[in-house]
Write a structure and sequence with these properties.
The complex is a heterodimer of chains A (289) and B (389). Chain A is mostly helical. Helix content of chain A is 75%, strand content 3%. A two-stranded antiparallel ribbon of chain A has the order 1-2. In chain A, strand 1 and strand 2 (133-136) form a beta hairpin. Chain B is mainly alpha-helical. The two termini of chain B are 26 Å apart. Chain B has helices spanning 2-6, 13-34, 38-63, 71-89, 93-115, 121-140, 178-201, 203-213, 215-220, 225-251, 261-274, 280-301, 308-322, 327-355, 362-372, 374-379; strands at 148-149, 152-153, 160-161, 167-168, 171-175, 253-254. Chain B folds into two domains: 11-308, no CATH class; 332-379, no CATH class. The chains are: A mainly alpha (289), B mainly alpha (389). The A-B interface holds A 35, 84, 87-88, 92-94, 96-98, 100-109, 111-112, 217-218, 220-222, 224-225, 228, 257, 259, 262-263, 266, 269-271, 273-274, 277 and B 67, 110, 113-114, 116-119, 121-123, 125-127, 129-131, 133-134, 137-138, 140-141, 261, 265, 268, 272, 305, 307-317, 319-321, 324.
């Protein structure tokens, strides 16, 4: 019984991890159709913000994680939207290569500042025991954060004017500009919000992972696969895809090795995309967000 | 040579480029061994294996329009296929061919899912990236004794070392000498380059380019776009596998780093910097950037502080924003542009000199004729050249 319980929690944490990784990308790639290959590096920046704030500036961990990291990474996103990405809207492959250049650049800068060493944030809140097993309490907090973040995203997109404007502009920029909205500004703000969400995800995941300059690579592939398999309705799709992949990965990792878990995640993704080339929400839940 | 020039012959990169590149390779093939510098030959063999890798990417991206973010996986697969096969067989002929066949089979399976699923470019990029990563992590985790194929252990992150070099077919005891290995590599490069040129000139190649230019139109004309893309992908994979096999023969060693994204990234950069849609451009890009990373590498080792990620990231961003075509096509455009200006200015000067009274403006006329130069011999008198013969 304990084993089943701990497994369920692990599967949930696997799903939450993928959903967190995918949240920012669902905004930037899912909604805006901008391929952001620097997604992993934005997450990595979020992790480094937490490290710098807690270790060197002595700021409270939660403040650093939930407030400073998203603001900082959001600003970084804003800057690069202005100097790089805005010239490339609509040119998908060029955006892909340029943002991948950006990712190399950011890795280079961080390596320059911090050196190519592994950093860690101590996991807060200790652990709790579950029958014969013990698990980090922070895992539960992470799952809770993920749920809150997604509720907030859905609320903003479906219930506020800001969300309406953003969704409308993404669907038809010309029509939006006829109604007196400036699409470039909406793109800029949406990109910054996506980057902020990404930084937040990186910060929340930092205590569970090690932080090194090249960590982004392992995030970016999983995040993209999740969002792509999710399909047209970016957020519903990301949640659904995270559900499938998180379950597969966690069960395989538990039975065999984490590496095989990754491999099976990928195989599942390739097969799912062969069956649903437009993603899960290309077939089901079409009218969701 | 002067006779050729006097008869109005002019180097035209579009028509004579292939022969110039192939000719340079042939000259190198005969000149370099004469220098009797073993280190130089070794260096050239390294560059040759990388150039072949660059050509594979130039082919599938520049002509097939397939944005593969993990061309290094085929490079690594080819290398591992050779290393494992040669460890089992103890002779290098069959492993040499396996180093192309195995990546080709892998590409066929992967390509089936991607192209017959009609995934778009971006999804293809992401999936190839993810597969490369998965292979990298998987091979890294195979250091245990249980991971072996036949007699050959995979060795995980330690890599497989002391791999047998090429021997003469059918005679496992007589290895190729350093000079022979050089001839072999160079010959394969020449064959790859000319082979791709011939392929691109054939009907198949034209359809491939048509598919890249306009997939829907090619489809409506009755071509099976999926099959053509798959074929291009498989051919590219085989060439990359060949490059992997050659690079093993250069350093007798392969590690999971052959799959690493750093290499995959470099391959894309060679093509991007050299010029997408040409074969010569990526060769230039490959040689230049390898040299740059060589310099940066030694700089970093001696505490230079500059790191390759930083520089390469900058190069990629600047090229996408400012020179998205790459170096070689841009230079070609410049040449055409300059030619156009020369003819314009020359024509203007000529008509101006016609206005002057006889006996004046000889210098101006000479200058104008020099500027127009080529045009007179090719397409008759320039506008305004009038009666002056």
């Amino acid at each position: 019984m304990d084993l089943v319980g701990i497994q369920i929690i692990q599967v949930l944490s696997g799903i939450a991890t993928l959903a967190l990784m995918g949240a920012g990308l669902a905004v930037i790639f899912g909604m805006m159709r901008v391929i952001n290959f620097a997604h992993g590096e934005f997450m990595m920046l979020g992790g480094y913000v937490v490290i710098v704030c807690t270790e060197q500036l002595g700021i409270n961990l939660w403040v650093a994680m939930l407030i400073i990291a998203p603001i900082f990474v959001g600003l970084v996103g804003l800057v690069f939207e202005r100097i790089l990405i805005r010239f490339l809207y609509g040119r998908m492959i060029d955006t892909l290569i340029a943002t991948w250049g950006l990712s190399l650049f950011l890795i280079g800068v961080i390596t320059w500042i911090f050196g190519n060493v592994t950093k860690g944030v101590q996991t807060p809140l200790g652990s709790y025991s579950f029958g014969d097993y013990s698990e980090k309490t922070y895992t539960l907090v992470m799952i809770a954060f993920t749920i809150i973040i997604y509720i907030a995203i859905f609320a903003v997109l479906r219930r506020t004017k800001l969300g309406l404007i953003a969704r409308g502009t993404m669907q038809n920029p010309n029509q939006a500009s006829c109604l007196g909205i400036s699409p470039p500004r909406v793109y800029m703000i949406t990109f910054a919000i996506g980057a902020a969400l990404t930084g937040l995800a990186g910060a929340i995941l930092a205590p569970l992972n090690t932080v090194i300059p090249t960590i982004g690579v392992s995030y970016v592939a999983q995040a993209f696969i999740t969002v792509i398999t999710g399909g047209a309705a970016a957020f519903t799709g990301t949640v659904l895809a995270s559900g499938v992949f998180g379950t597969v990965r966690q069960i395989i990792s538990f039975e065999w090795t984490p590496i095989l878990g990754q491999v099976f995640l990928l195989i599942t993704a390739v097969i799912l995309l062969r069956i649903f080339p437009t993603g899960i929400t290309g077939r089901f839940f079409r009218r969701s967000t | 040579m002067t006779g050729l020039l006097a008869s109005g012959w002019k180097f035209d990169p579009n028509r004579h480029g292939t022969w110039a590149v192939a000719g340079t390779m042939i000259v190198l093939l005969f000149v370099l061994p004469v220098l009797e510098d073993p280190l130089l030959l070794l260096q050239v063999r390294y560059y040759v294996s990388m150039i072949i890798l660059a050509l594979s990417m130039a082919f599938i991206w520049g002509f097939g329009g397939i944005m593969c973010f993990g061309q290094s996986m085929f490079f690594g697969l080819g290398g591992y296929a050779y290393a494992i096969a040669v460890g089992n067989i103890g002779e290098s002929t069959a492993p040499f061919f396996l180093s192309m066949i195995i990546p080709a089979i892998f590409a066929a399976i992967l390509g089936y899912f991607m192209f017959f699923g009609r995934l778009n470019d971006v999804y293809v990029a992401v999936i190839t990236l993810a597969v490369t990563l998965a292979l990298y992590y998987f091979i890294n985790s195979t250091s245990g004794d249980e991971y072996k194929i036949g007699k050959a252990r995979l060795m995980g992150f330690n890599g497989i070392s002391s791999i047998r070099k090429f021997n003469w077919p059918g005679d496992p005891k007589s290895f190729l000498t350093a000079n022979e290995l050089f001839y072999f590599s160079m010959g394969l490069l020449l064959a790859t380059y000319l082979g791709l040129k011939v392929l691109l000139g054939s009907k198949f190649g034209r359809v491939v380019v048509a598919v890249k230019e306009n997939e829907l139109r090619a489809e409506l004309l009755g071509y099976d776009v999926r099959a053509y893309k798959l074929a291009v992908f498989v051919i590219g994979a085989a060439i990359a596998g060949l490059a992997g096999c050659l690079s093993i023969n250069y350093k007798n060693f392969i590690s999971p780093n052959a799959f690493h994204l750093a290499l995959a990234a470099q391959i894309i950069m060679w093509v991007l910097v050299g010029g997408v849609g040409t074969l010569f451009g990526p060769i230039v890009g490959c040689v230049v950037l390898l040299y740059v990373s060589f310099i940066l590498g030694t700089g970093a080792a001696s505490g230079g502080g500059m790191n390759t990620y930083f520089i390469f990231g900058l190069i990629v961003m600047i090229f996408v924003l400012v020179i998205p075509q790459g170096i070689v096509p841009t230079i070609r455009d410049w040449r055409e542009q300059i030619g156009r200006y020369r003819r314009m200015i020359g024509g203007g000067l000529l008509s101006l000199s016609d206005q002057l009274p006889a006996g004046h403006g000889e210098g101006m006329r000479n200058l104008a004729e020099r500027l127009i130069g080529v045009m007179k011999s090719e397409s008759g008198p320039a506008p305004g050249a009038g009666t002056k013969g």
